[in-house]
Design goal:
The chain is built from seven helices and seven strands; from the N terminus they run βαααβββαβαββαα. With 213 residues, the chain is α+β, with helices and mostly antiparallel strands. The chain has a seven-stranded mixed β-sheet. α1 packs across α3.
């Protein structure tokens, strides 16, 4: 019998430990598969100041947490601000940018990636955003396939730096049709605050993979 979809809710500062456990577990999964290029070799929880920054993201209401059986199995961080690392003119003005989405790599994470991407679309539409956008490590065929399947179109690549080495990243955009607010008879919800420089400081610690196999 297929498992039900995970529950989604806004993360709070009380969830920082659970979020870091998830992030470290996904990082370990990548390292075990010989993929240090995406996030480096230092676990998230060992980065000086990083737990406090995760708490700040939660306080700014930009993190959605996916839960199953009382355990964190996924997270999404999205805001209406495009990071300065993204080449100018590649993302439509007013777009919602997905800064981070990751899911547990075990059975508990199944369905969490799709649910979080669907939630990102709901958030974007509720704010009247013309598109969703994201960037990811260009060297991952899994990420390329995942975002192709979810309608995120590659618009450019750019070179950044990871641990002193150049690294290529892909920028993708998923256009959205503007919601008909007259028909829906609703007002746009308040936009989440931008994570700003808190996320900019870790430019290659953004994307995990979709639902686990």
């Amino acid at each position: 019998m297929p498992r039900s979809s995970p529950g989604l809710r806004p993360a709070t500062a009380d969830d920082v430990t659970a979020l870091l456990v998830l992030m470290d577990s996904v990082h370990a999964w990548l390292i075990a598969r010989g993929r240090p290029e995406q996030w480096g070799t230092v676990p998230f929880s060992h980065i000086p100041g990083f737990p406090g920054r995760v708490a700040d993201w939660a306080r700014r209401n930009v993190v959605t947490m996916a839960e199953r059986d009382g355990r964190c199995v996924g997270m999404l961080a999205a805001a209406l601000t495009v990071p300065p690392r993204i080449p100018a003119g590649t993302v439509p003005d007013g777009s919602m940018f997905i800064h981070t989405v990751m899911t547990d790599r075990g059975p508990g994470g199944r369905g969490a990636g799709a649910a979080l991407l669907k939630e990102a679309e709901r958030l974007a539409r509720s704010h009247g955003a013309p598109a969703l956008a994201l960037d990811h490590w260009a060297g991952s065929p899994e990420l390329n396939r995942l975002y192709d399947e979810h309608g995120y179109v590659k618009v450019t690549e750019y070179t950044d730096e990871q641990a002193g080495e150049p690294i290529r990243n892909t920028v993708r955009v998923r256009p959205l049709r503007a919601p008909d607010r007259t028909a829906q008879n609703e007002e746009p919800t308040q936009a989440p605050a931008s994570p700003g420089l808190a996320l900019r400081s870790f430019p290659h610690r953004r994307f995990s993979y979709g639902d686990p196999p």
